Amino acid sequence: MKLRHLIWATAVATALSVAGCSALDAKQRAMIFQPSDRVWQRADMAGMQDVWIDFHSQADQQAVRLHGLWLAQKNPRAPVLLYLHGARWNVTGSTQRMRHMHALGFAVLAIDYRGFGQTQPASLPSEVSAREDALAAWHWLAQQHPQAPRFIFGHSLGGAIAIDLATRVDDEQGLVVEGTFTNIRDMARNFQWGWLPLGPLITQKFDSLDKVAHIGAPLLVVHGSADTLVPPALGQQLYDAAVPPKQWVLVQGGTHHNTNSLGQAQYRAALAAWLAPKNP
């Protein structure tokens, strides 16, 4: 084969490989995030304010405008909570969990990642873009409420984003994750085709099991015993890999969707020390 033919063949093979990898990556991002602008029909947004957070994405080199919902407390000194939601629904699907955390004493900011709700651009989200979005929201909270103790909360996929965020900041007072997992590879093993050797093909790793040991703040891991989407064993593994101070709360009968409401009393007991008034 002549050199120019070899170069041409190599270029074609490389292009096909890159195209294949790009398509695989996009498919994974779509399957994991299931981004949507759908409004949760039972959403109760009374008393919630729209929040807009503008920043420049270093990963995509584009302007980003995050949309969020802010649920304030009457007490201006109340602790603030960044709520990071899971897949499929936009932020309106989290309003009930926001209210449950609000009832515990938090002022709550919940955001939509790129690809969800009114956040712009409406691009396909990724592990990297969600990381940027969460960090931008955290900085916004620090600027708007510099004197308030700040906490991070993540549900399901949002738990993985929350754990990643907690490894990148050092001013959080605590981290709560509910119904979350160790990594995408372990989640894949729970599906019908989980026996396939998919590890090398995963581009969106969300490796919380590796990251959780590097969190410097108190950690609360909550899981429902009847969660069939994310098995409680994954939450337990995540807790076991973390370093103290940490707490594990298993809500009996809790599913992936109702653990936050069913476990309110357990939440309140677990968070009592975090939210106790500090002596001046």
UniProtKB/TrEMBL annotation:
Endpoints of the signal sequence: 1-23
Keyword Signal: yes
PROSITE patterns per UniProt: PROKAR_LIPOPROTEIN
Pfam families: Hydrolase_4
Alphabetical UniProt keywords: Hydrolase, Signal
InterPro entries in UniProt: AB_hydrolase_1 (IPR000073), AB_hydrolase_fold (IPR029058), Hydrolase_4 (IPR022742)
Gene Ontology MF annotations: hydrolase activity
Record-annotated Serine aminopeptidase S33 domain positions: 80-192
Annotated Gene3D superfamilies: alpha/beta hydrolase (3.40.50.1820)
Protein name: Alpha/beta hydrolase
Organism name: Comamonas aquatica DA1877
